[in-house]
Amino acid sequence: MSETENYFDHDADIGIIGRGNTVEECFANTARVMFSLMVDLEKVHQIQIITFEFVESDIEIALVTWLNLLLAKSQEHHLIFGDFRITHESDTWKAIVSGEPWRENLERGIEIKGATLTMLSVKKINNSWEARCIVDV
After folding, report:
1. For 50-64, what is each residue's pLDDT tens digit?
2. What is the pLDDT of residues 118-134, one digit of tens each?
3. Does pTM surpass 0.85?
4. Could you give the C-alpha distances from 46 to 8, 20, 35, 71, in angstroms and in order?
5. Cα separation of 37 and 111, whole Å?
6. DSSP state of 20
7. CB neighbour list of residue 78: distance below 8 Å, 6 or more residues apart
8. Among 6, 86, 92, 134, fewest CB within 10 Å belongs to which?
9. Cβ neighbours of residue 37 under 8 Å, at least 6 residues apart?
10. Distance CA 137, CA 133 (A)
């Protein structure tokens, strides 16, 4: 490597894990974990509801898509979400999430930039589901 080419280590990632009895519950709990890094979810009021859907056949890519769409919808609508519901039939995933606009007395935690494909895993373990993902902070 020459003097003009170099790199440095940067710790800007956090691994998140969600579990549930169904894949939908697992996805919802993974979203809760991600948003709990940003705010105390117990203090978020469920005032505004946002619905959206997406199509994805690969379950692991569906997790990353779900998490990144949540971040995008949160920014688009200037909301912090605290309740997450998702269902799917075939390749179509339908989400209903709720939250409220950021307010001054909501203490902001870590800013999540996005969910990544790094160490991505969605699998059934015994009778429950587990999802793992690295988020960029």
Report:
1. 999 999 999 999 999
2. 999 999 999 999 999 99
3. yes
4. 42, 22, 14, 17
5. 8
6. E
7. 101, 102
8. 6
9. 14, 16, 109, 110, 112, 135, 137
10. 13
